[in-house]
C-alpha cells in the first residue's frame, strides 16, 4: 500500500514562498502520476497541480505562473514550489498519487493514494 507523507507547510506573509514536498513509500514501482490538491475550510477539495509520466504538468487557473510542480530527485517524490502566495492560498495541501493513471489531470477519482496533508497559511 502506498503511503504519502507531505512536508514543508507553514505560515508566511502574502507575497512569500513555500516549497511543499511529498515522499511515497510502500510501492516498488514508479508512481507516474502525482499531484497536489488543497482544501480550505468550508470549501471542496480542489486540484492545484498535477504532473504525469511525460513530464507535462497542469495547473489550476489561480496558481498558474506562481506555483511549479516537479518530480523530486528521490524516486516517487514530488515537490510544489509556491511563490507570490496570497491569503486565498490558505488551505490544507494534500499530495496524491495514482498507481494506474498516467497523464496529468486533477480529477480526484484518478488518484488512489492520498497523504494526510500539510497546512499552508498565508497572512495579509
3D architecture notes:
By secondary structure, the chain is mostly beta strands. Helices cover 0% and strands 48% of the residues. It has strands at residues 3-7, 10-13, 18-25, 33-39, 46-51, 57-59, 67-71, 77-82, 91-98, 113-114, 118-123. Strands 2, 4, 5, 6, 9, 10 and 11 form a seven-stranded mixed beta sheet that branches. A four-stranded antiparallel beta sheet has the order 1-3-8-7, with no helix packed on it.
Quick gist of this model?
This protein is mainly β and 124 residues long.
List keywords for this structure.
mainly beta; 11 strands; 0% helix; 7-stranded mixed β-sheet; 4-stranded antiparallel β-sheet; 124 residues
Unreliable sequence segments: none
From the alpha-carbon coordinates, what is the Rg to the nearest angstrom? 13 Å
Structural class: mainly beta
Order of helices and strands: EEEEEEEEEEE
* Helix run count: 0
Q: What's the N-to-C terminus distance?
A: 40 Å
Shape by Cα distribution:
globular
Largest sheet entry: 7 strands, mixed
* Whole-number mean pLDDT: 95
Strand coverage percent: over 45%
Q: Bin the helical content.
A: under 10%
Number of strands: 11
Please write out the topology.
Elements: E1 3-7, E2 10-13, E3 18-25, E4 33-39, E5 46-51, E6 57-59, E7 67-71, E8 77-82, E9 91-98, E10 113-114, E11 118-123
Parallel strand pairs: 2-11
Antiparallel strand pairs: 1-3, 3-8, 4-5, 4-9, 5-6, 7-8, 9-10, 9-11
Amino acid at each position: 500500500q502506498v503511503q504519502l507523507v507531505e512536508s514543508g507547510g507553514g505560515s508566511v506573509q502574502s507575497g512569500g514562498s513555500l516549497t511543499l514536498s511529498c515522499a511515497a513509500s510502500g510501492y516498488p514501482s514508479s508512481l507516474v502520476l502525482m499531484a497536489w490538491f488543497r482544501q480550505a475550510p468550508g470549501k471542496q477539495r480542489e486540484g492545484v497541480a498535477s504532473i504525469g509520466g511525460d513530464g507535462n504538468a497542469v495547473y489550476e487557473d489561480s496558481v498558474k505562473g506562481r506555483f511549479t510542480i516537479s518530480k523530486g530527485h528521490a524516486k516517487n517524490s514530488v515537490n510544489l514550489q509556491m511563490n507570490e502566495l496570497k491569503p486565498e492560498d490558505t488551505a490544507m495541501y494534500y499530495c496524491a498519487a495514482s498507481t494506474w493513471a498516467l497523464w496529468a489531470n486533477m480529477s480526484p477519482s484518478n488518484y488512489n493514494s492520498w497523504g494526510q496533508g500539510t497546512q499552508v497559511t498565508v497572512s495579509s
